[in-house]
């Protein structure tokens, strides 16, 4: 057992700490102590925005009843609807506006003070704060608790930036501002007053967000109060320690000691330089306590920046003559010659080298004085569920927004047969050609046009289409998340990639509330050399077909849908994805004989989609498992990496 709980504390949460109120117009501290808090309260009551320093970094706060203030907070932080939370003064104020079960009440009043996504019983807030049936609520500690007692309920979210001068969108999410100098510049640029203090926060503590999905509390983010807890998982062997460094998006690391696993909170996007530096330092601090692990587990994509954390933690230097080095890079499985079936933890030998731009290469890995295990992104997703359940074989589903596959293309709709150390890829969406790097394609309208062009549903003579047809600087994707983005665009729900899936969820939520009948649609499934290929052309055609003509003009859908028709389409799309999943799992069961299904990936954070999929699989007599201890998204990738890496035996060292 090991414990890093002390790293979770922050002096700035102490209400006895001296706070100061900074005025950006006067560019100076104008008050301190109780008067500073009074100035903050007055500003919030007057529909202003105040940056409040807390253990999680600086939070932007405002009144939940001011549409203008909420809009400005959202614009400044690029926060999506589900990332604006409410801090309440007490449990009674939450119960007035939300349904709260006995267990949810227990969590809200617990010392960990998590944020719970609760169902609204009334809608007292403007539409731009909450347009769905659920909103995140908490009873905060520290200075926020003091403010809510004077103001009442307030909105809060993190002030996230890439550097001290520039905000970023969610897809390249930056760090939480916690340094006073950085926040001072941010406030001056945006004319935001702040309630701050003289205590530096050495480690930001992300908030924990929990939602009931399928009748169980699921971590959407595992942060303060939970991230430093160790968890004993089954099927772990005493093979020493493993450090798994996770993936780039929502990077989090996991330390395994014997059968104890400690997953860090999300440290942001490791592709952003300041995030990578921050994550590297946090890992080093932990290794100073526990020592260097026996092996590292990293993402099999050599382009992942998170691999640099392992390189730095090992402190390689330029020593290329270490006699105690070994790199665990397994070759293709002996069960098949197909690159889709490989030993878990390997890079296929014929990975498209044009895609591998940076990161730890084979030769670099051999220089490290430690064992390195390479784990494919989506296999790690499924393995994180297997780790929680102690499974050695199952049907694995990874529905995700993307991630490099073993063939150098963008994956994200994966069906695996997982057995021991082998993961056989047996199903996925048909590939769609897209411009550039899949991880950089953040425009949902462009994604939609790519999908329609691929399936012959959109004729466009622009340079964009010529680029796709001639494969000029293109890649291919089979991401389920991108298909959801396309569906949201086609039914006229959203065009912003940051909000597509959430918008689709809201429409399905309303459709279920109104008991609307869904519009039937279905996928075409073909068996190509033992791999099920899922063609979405008929789905896209159905989403395009309405009573009034639809046109694609400059990448935008032009047409008219009634609100109920949009919702019926969204609900029909959910049903089609769920039915397709059950059908493929049934076919895999006939082939492999497995009745256990592990579902993982970012799409399992979507409450209504996850509940529909879990219910349909259970009704088809499958035993279904999912992430419950750890979040279902990318932040639990490191758990799957660490769990898989525990079984590998190092390749014997050879002298130079």
General description of the model:
- With 656 residues, the protein is α/β, with parallel strands linked by helices.
- The protein has 18 helices and 32 strands.
- The strands form six sheets. The protein has an eleven-stranded mixed sheet, sandwiched between helices. Strands 20, 22, 23, 24, 27, 28, 31 and 32 form an eight-stranded mixed sheet that branches. A seven-stranded mixed sheet has the order 14-17-16-15-18-21-19.
- Helix 10 packs across helix 18, helix 14 packs across helix 16 and helix 16 (563-592) crosses helix 17.
CA radius of gyration: 25 Å
In terms of DSSP E residues, the strand content is: 15-25%
Q: Which shape, going by the Cα principal axes?
A: globular
Adjacency order of strands in the biggest sheet = 2-1-11-3-4-8-5-7-6-12-13
The percent range for helix content is: 25-40%
Instruction: Output the structural class.
Output: alpha/beta
Total of DSSP H or I helical runs spanning 4+ residues: 18
What is the overall pLDDT average? 79
CA-to-CA gap between the ends?
37 Å
Number of E-state strands: 32
Q: Show unreliable segments.
A: 1-14, 161-175, 316-368, 649-656
Q: What composes the largest sheet?
A: 11 strands, mixed
């Amino acid at each position: 057992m090991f414990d890093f709980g002390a790293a979770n504390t922050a002096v700035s949460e102490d209400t006895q700490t001296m706070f100061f109120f900074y005025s950006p117009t006067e560019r100076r501290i104008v008050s301190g102590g109780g008067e500073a808090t009074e100035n903050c309260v007055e500003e919030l009551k007057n529909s202003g925005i105040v940056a409040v320093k807390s253990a999680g970094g600086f939070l932007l706060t405002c009144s939940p009843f001011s549409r203008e203030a909420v809009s400005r907070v959202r614009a400044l932080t690029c926060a999506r609807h589900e990332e604006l939370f409410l801090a309440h003064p007490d449990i009674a104020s939450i119960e007035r506006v939300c349904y709260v079960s006995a267990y949810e009440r227990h969590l809200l009043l617990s010392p960990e003070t998590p944020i719970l996504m609760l169902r609204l019983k009334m809608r007292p807030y403007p539409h731009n704060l909450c347009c769905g049936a659920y909103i995140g609520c908490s009873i905060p500690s520290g200075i926020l608790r003091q403010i809510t007692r004077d103001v009442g309920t307030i909105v809060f979210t993190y002030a996230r930036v890439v550097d001290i001068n520039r905000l970023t969108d969610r897809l390249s999410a930056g760090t939480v501002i916690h340094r006073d100098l950085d926040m001072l510049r941010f406030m001056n640029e945006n004319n935001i007053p702040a309630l701050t203090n003289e205590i530096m926060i050495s480690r930001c503590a992300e908030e924990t967000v929990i939602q009931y999905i399928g009748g169980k509390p699921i971590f959407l983010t595992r942060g303060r109060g939970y991230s430093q807890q160790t968890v004993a998982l089954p099927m772990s062997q005493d093979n020493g320690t493993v450090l798994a460094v996770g993936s780039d998006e929502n990077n989090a690391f996991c330390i395994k000691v014997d059968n104890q696993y400690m997953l860090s909170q999300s440290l942001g996007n490791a592709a952003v330089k300041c995030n990578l530096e921050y994550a590297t330092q946090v890992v080093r601090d932990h290794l100073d306590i526990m020592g260097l692990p026996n092996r590292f587990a990293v993402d099999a994509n050599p382009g992942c920046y998170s691999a640099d954390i392992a390189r730095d933690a090992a402190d390689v230097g330029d020593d290329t003559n270490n006699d105690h080095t070994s790199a665990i890079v397994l070759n293709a499985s002996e069960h098949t010659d197909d690159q889709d079936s490989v030993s878990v933890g390997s890079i296929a030998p014929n990975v498209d080298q044009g895609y591998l731009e940076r990161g730890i290469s084979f030769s670099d890995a051999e220089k490290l004085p430690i064992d390195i295990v390479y784990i494919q992104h989506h296999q790690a997703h499924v393995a994180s569920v297997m780790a929680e359940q102690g499974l050695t074989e199952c049907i694995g589903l990874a529905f995700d927004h993307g991630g490099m596959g073993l063939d150098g293309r963008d994956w994200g709709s994966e069906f695996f047969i997982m057995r021991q150390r082998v993961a056989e890829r047996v199903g996925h969406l048909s590939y769609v050609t897209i411009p550039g790097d899949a991880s950089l394609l953040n425009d949902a309208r462009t994604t939609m046009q790519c999908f329609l062009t691929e399936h012959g549903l959109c004729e466009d003579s622009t340079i964009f289409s010529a680029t796709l047809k001639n494969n000029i600087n293109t890649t291919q994707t089979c991401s389920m998340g991108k298909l959801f983005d396309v569906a949201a665009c086609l039914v006229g729900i959203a065009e912003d990639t940051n909000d597509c899936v959430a918008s689709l969820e809201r429409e399905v939520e309303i459709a279920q509330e109104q008991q609307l009948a869904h519009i039937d649609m279905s996928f075409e499934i073909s068996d190509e050399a033992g791999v099920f290929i899922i063609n979405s052309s008929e789905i896209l055609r159905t989403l395009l077909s309405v009573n009034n003509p639809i046109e694609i003009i400059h990448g935008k859908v032009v047409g008219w849908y009634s609100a109920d028709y949009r919702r019926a389409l969204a609900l029909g799309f959910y049903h089609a994805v769920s039915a397709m999943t059950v059908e493929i799992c049934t076919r895999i069961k006939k082939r492999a004989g497995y009745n256990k299904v592990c579902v993982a990936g970012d799409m399992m954070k979507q409450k209504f989609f996850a509940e529909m999929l879990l219910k349909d699989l259970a009704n088809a007599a499958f035993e279904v498992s999912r992430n419950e201890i750890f979040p279902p998204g990318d932040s639990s990738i490191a758990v799957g990496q660490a769990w898989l890496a525990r079984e590998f035996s190092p390749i014997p060292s050879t002298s130079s």
